Every structure is written in C-alpha cells, then in structure tokens.
Amino acid sequence: MMEIQRHRLVLITPPFQGHLTPMLHLATVLHSKGFSITVAHAHFNSPDPSNHPNFCFLPLFYGLSDTHISSKNVVDITATLNTRCVSPIKEALIDQIEKANINHEKIACVIYDGLMYSIDSVARELKLPNIVLRTTSATNFLTYHTFLQRQSSGWLPLQDSMSLDLVPELEPLRFKDLPMFNSCDIQKQIAKTVAVRPSLGVICNTVNCLEEESLYRLHQVYKVSFFPIGPLHMIAEEDSSSSSFVEEDYSCIGWLKKQPKQSVLYVSLGSIASWEEKELTEVACGLANSKQKFLWVIRPGTISDVSEWLESLCKDVRVAIAERGCIVKWAPQGEVLADEAVGGFWSHCGWNSTLESLCEGVPMMCQPHFGDQRVNARLLSHVWKVGLEWSNVMERNEIEVAVRRLMVNSEGKEMRQKALKLKNEIKIAVKDGSSYDALNRLVKSILSMNL
Ligand code: UDX
C-alpha cells in the first residue's frame, strides 16, 4: 500500500463577506503549516481562485441565491442555508474522500463556519474529524450558552422593561445587548449552534488578551478544546490578497495620504448593515457640521442614486463634503485603518471590523445594528474602553457631538492611547504569545487525530 503523503483540510464557508474573509485567512495559515487546502463555498459571492493558486476551490449549490442574500434577513437565510446545504455538502465530501484516496492523501479534518451548524451531523456520519470556526467574539458565543442555561430559570420571555438591566453572569452586558433578545427564531438557531460538538474543537477568531475570561468560561461549559488563534487577518499576514465581493476603490488611499495624522474619521457599516436615505442625510449634515475630515463607505445598493442624493443636499453640506470628505463604494479597509491619517472609525461593530480597528490602534464610535454587534459594542465601550458609546440617535446634532467627542475631545484621546496599548498586546500574542501557541496546539491536534 502506498504511504499517505499529505493531509488535506476541507474548509466550508457561507456566502457572507464577514465569514468568507476569516475562513480564507485560516486556510492561508494552515497551508503554511503544510496542509493541502480545499475551500468549499457557494456558487455566488465566491472567492477569486487566482488569488490563492495553492488552494482547490469547490463551488457548491447551497440552495441559496444572491437575491435571497440581498433580502438581508440573516436569520431566515441561515435557517434555509442549514436545511438546503446538507445534501450537496455531503455529496461533495464523499467525492473528496474518494479523490483523496486516489491521490494518496487523507481528509484530515473538515473545518466549517459556526453558522453552518448542520454540517456537524454530516461530518459525524462520514466519520471525519471536524472543527468549527467561530467568526464572532468568544463573548458572543458565551451569551448563547448562558442564555440556554438560564432558559429554565425565569429569563423567558425577556421583558422590555429588563432591557437596560445588567445580565448577572455576563456583566457589563445588558439584556438588550444579547443577540437573541426576544427573537424566537434566533433562539432556535442558537440552540442548534450550541448543540454542535465538533470532535476536534472550536477555532475562535479572537485573542486571549481581549477575551481571556470568556474563553475560560466557554471551555468550562462547552467541554471541547478552544483554539483562540486570532486575529486571523494578522496571523495570516502573508495573505495580502483581497477577498472582497465589491471592488475596492484605492483612490481613497491617495486621498488619505494628503490628510494630517489622525485627522480622518472612517465611516463604514460593513457588508450588511445600512442607513436609509433620511439617515444618510443626517449623517452627511452631522459630519459636515463636525468640521472633521471623513472617509465614508456608501455601498452599492444602499441608495438608488448617490449623485442625485448628493445634489439634493443643501449647499453648505455639499461644500463640506467636497472640501473635507471622500465617499467610496467600498474601501480597502485594512489599508485604510493602517493609514496614520485615520483617527477614528464610526462602525457597526461587526467582529472583523472590530478586530481590524483594534489591531491598528484606532478608537471607534459604536453603532451596532444587529446580532453580535451589540455585544462587540459593549466590549469596546465598557471593557476595553476604546469605543465611544453615544445616543445612536440618527439626528445631525447628536452625530456632530459624537464625532467631536471621538475626534477632538480628551475622551477620544484617552481611547486612542488605550487602543495603541491593546494594539501592542495583540501584536505580541500573534508573534510569540497566546495566539501563536494556540495555532501550534491546533496543528498538533489535527495531526494527532490522523496518526
Ligand atoms: C457579519 C456580521 O454583520 C458581523 O456582525 C459578524 O461579526 C460577521 O459577519 P459584516 O457585517 O460584514 O459581517 O461586518 P464585519 O464583521 O465587520 O466584516 C466586514 C468586512 O468587510 C471586514 O473584513 C472589512 O475589512 C471589510 N470591508 C468593509 C472592506 O473591505 N471594505 C469596506 O468598504 C467595508
């Protein structure tokens, strides 16, 4: 019999920007550790194979369409995805096992995104070692467990009057920060997510120095191994290729280079959240009145005609945008945050944006929209103290005041100092600290399952 030469990993990702990007970073890291890589993905919102010539890509029909995705109903999309992806993924895995045998390889492990909880039973049935990649914070995952544990002790139904109360086990989170607050559909999905028991454990895109206590508590309740090897974009530093679904507009980097140090507020709500036209107008007026410079991402589809909307703004605001602003459809966010001209980030607090900002020492103005974003915002403002909590009222005066608090006032300066300190701690964790150690532990675990 021929000796098995290589271990192949099959990574399975859903068609969302905030999930595909960390999965590709993980693939890059594990490839650098000697594994062969296959990335299974949806037939749309696909990665560009030419950016990763060393990987095999496997486009699959998950049973979702891009119009389904554009409905933005994340809960419904997740439920449909988990029902419809099972049989195509099972067939693809069986095929991969056969191909691996022919090529004297072995499928050493299936790594799937935490959103795709239904893969758990597929991997189990095919007797493949498996790992879940959690692309949100460990604290967010902990809220799922705490919620389920407490379901029987009087938490449900959550009353609106409790929304500002602190959750006893999860302070400083309030009930209203919980991602499942009063949504039965989300609660059902959370129960399914928590029921998953990956044989090799959970990879978390986080760092010990940010979430040590949550990681410790998760390990205690979940009783599988945890590998906090993040931030993945930093640990995969050799991977500078883009996985953006929308083409990045690099003209904004040229614009940033002409701006003074820490003078620009970067404004972006990631790939799903958005403001309505009325809110966009309040943002434009608030930014103009704050007298600060700003780089603003307005994604395609946010508004039917951006030029027409800009024309409809009053003259003073148009002049302010022309003099102090730069608007793009999609920015190379990593490079933007790394540019010394950027002094703050007005963000929806998606976990990737949060990590990217922390890694560059940029303080944030928090405006969570849904799901894990409220947890992240609370961590930013009340635990790491590098995020500004403000009224979140989409009214120009409120916006003006909040922007100035972050960019001009002493509280913004203090947050910037704290952010720089965290940046250094994260750097150390990645270079030869906790994330570096967790990665080595992960590689050993995968190999030891395949001896
Ligand atoms: C989603 C959820 O909303 C988020 O809460 C969860 O943590 C991950 O999945 P998304 O809303 O897109 O993600 O936010 P985020 O996690 O911040 O990811 C956005 C990604 O798009 C980041 O990696 C960011 O760098 C990138 N991006 C965003 C760009 O490259 N350019 C842009 O102009 C805007």
From TrEMBL:
Coiled-coil parts of chain: none
CDD domains per the UniProt record, alphabetical: GT1_Gtf-like
Pfam family, one: UDPGT
The keyword Transferase belongs to this UniProt entry's keyword annotation: yes
Gene3D superfamilies assigned: Glycogen Phosphorylase B
InterPro entries from the UniProt entry: UDP_glucos_trans (IPR002213)
Keywords, ordered alphabetically: Transferase
Family named by the database record: Belongs to the UDP-glycosyltransferase family.
Name by which UniProt lists this protein: Glycosyltransferase
Source organism: Vigna angularis var. angularis
